[in-house]
From TrEMBL:
Residues 304-402 form the HTH araC/xylS-type domain. The modification 4-aspartylphosphate is found at D1. May play the central regulatory role in sporulation. It may be an element of the effector pathway responsible for the activation of sporulation genes in response to nutritional stress. Spo0A may act in concert with spo0H (a sigma factor) to control the expression of some genes that are critical to the sporulation process. GO terms for molecular function: DNA-binding transcription factor activity; sequence-specific DNA binding. The keyword Manganese does not apply. SMART domains: HTH_ARAC (SM00342). It comes from the Bacteria. InterPro entries: CheY-like_superfamily, Homeodomain-like_sf, HTH_AraC, Sig_transdc_resp-reg_receiver, Tscrpt_reg_AraC-type_HTH. This is Stage 0 sporulation protein A homolog.
């Protein structure tokens, strides 16, 4: 036909002339047909990919072996054993999609929240694949990613069991700081310790300006000891929250750029010991540069008196009027200088301090949430729970259960 003739002419190098006449409309028709065939194939491939991912998700995440025959029917490569690895990251979805897009050409992908399971049949490609994905993901600030893989191939029937293993091994990433690509088999005999650092108690004995360097040294020692002992991450996070609260209370009450809520949220969401180190470094630097001065001028002393009164009477009803009477100032003027000196309102400071005390009490089994709400100054249990959730994104009961688990 005309199209074959023209194609052959070009292939032979006859680009300056074409011996056989042809219709422009016919060429357009042939090109459009080819384009339609290509689009149909792309649509089929996309539908097939979505179907495969859905069926693989049932197999991997739910152990549904009934989908096995369907998978093999649509891709007979699945009848043989395959390699697989998982990606764990906090990267935004768009960035993650961009990073793994090239994988779809020769790998099968299964998504679930921040987990991505990748099945492939060529182990030699693995280092280059992961290196490219890592570079794209880590191009963003405050983003982390880890790759867990098994060296041996797995059959589809046992892939759900292997995935559960990877989920179990995820907790061990807390102490992995300089590696991104990790052989999960290395975690086979890895165990956490329930012991913490012997220096923890010493940290809470420092509260004066001249002791800040000693405090820093003790915190560094504490972090190194928990790393050496492989202390359970949950224990470390609890301890670090207490340390942060201590530093903020004793050293940086007046710091306008430090939010207790933000700091505590960052600690509670830490996935790695390096994240914890960064948070502690920020707080220590702030403590060095800005601490509570207890006598620089009259207003400083007044604010210190108000803070001391709040911390001694937080369980009682406190109002701006009652506090202003203590320091013989008008309520509006007290609001203004308190905000100027501390970077927060009196209400915010009182709420933060009550929440700190609530956390301390929740760690003791003998108190119920209703009792704790009254002990920290809230007559309404529901209002206390709502305030706690707003600050920590968890309820008091959930926090208590997690602590004692």
């Amino acid at each position: 036909d005309d199209f074959t003739f023209v194609h052959a002419a070009y292939k032979a190098g006859g680009v300056e002339y074409i011996l056989k006449p042809f219709s422009k409309e016919e060429v357009i028709r042939v090109v459009q047909e080819a384009q339609q065939q290509l689009e149909n194939k792309q649509t089929f491939d996309e539908v097939r990919r979505i179907f495969m991912e859905e069926q693989l998700g049932k197999l991997v995440f739910h152990g549904d072996s009934t989908v096995l025959n369907k998978l093999i029917k649509y891709d007979d490569i699945l009848s043989s054993n395959m390699y697989f690895f998982s990606i764990h990251t906090n990267a935004p979805h768009d960035l993650l999609k961009k990073a793994i897009q090239p994988l779809s050409r020769y790998c099968l992908l299964v998504y679930r929240k921040s987990n991505i399971i990748v099945l492939y049949n060529n182990f030699c490609r693995l280092p280059n694949i992961l290196s490219r994905i890592k570079d794209i993901i880590l191009s963003e600030n405050d983003v982390w990613c880890y790759f867990l893989y098994f060296e041996e191939k797995v059959d589809l029937l046992s892939i759900s069991e292997k995935f559960d293993k990877l989920e179990e091994y995820k907790k061990y990433l807390f102490y992995i700081s300089n590696e991104y690509i990790i052989n999960a088999s290395e975690f086979h005999k890895y165990e956490f310790s329930n012991t913490t650092s012997d220096t923890l108690e010493k940290i809470f004995n420092f509260e004066y300006r001249h002791e800040i360097d000693m405090l820093e040294n003790q915190i560094t020692l504490y972090l190194q000891e928990v790393i050496n002992r492989k202390t359970k991450p949950a224990i470390v996070i609890e301890n670090v929250i207490d340390i942060c609260l201590h530093i903020m209370k004793k050293y940086i009450k007046e710091e306008t750029n430090v939010s207790r809520k933000d700091i505590l949220n960052k600690v509670m969401s830490s996935n790695n010991i390096e994240d914890v180190k960064k948070i502690m470094t920020i707080l220590i630097d702030k403590a060095k540069s800005r601490f509570v001065s207890k006598g620089e001028n009259k207003n400083d002393n007044l604010i210190v008196n108000v803070i001391n009164y709040i911390e001694e009477n937080y369980a009682s009803p406190l109002t701006i009027d009652s506090l202003s009477e203590i320091v013989y100032l008008s309520p509006n003027y007290l609001r203004a200088i308190f905000k100027e000196k501390t970077g927060t309102t009196i209400h915010e400071y009182l709420t933060n301090y009550r929440m700190e005390k609530a956390i301390e009490l929740l760690k003791k089994k003998k108190h119920k949430v209703k009792e704790i709400s009254k002990m920290v100054g809230y007559d309404s249990e529901s209002y206390f729970c709502a305030t706690f959730y707003k600050m920590f994104q968890t309820t008091p009961n959930e926090y208590k259960k997690r602590h004692w688990s």
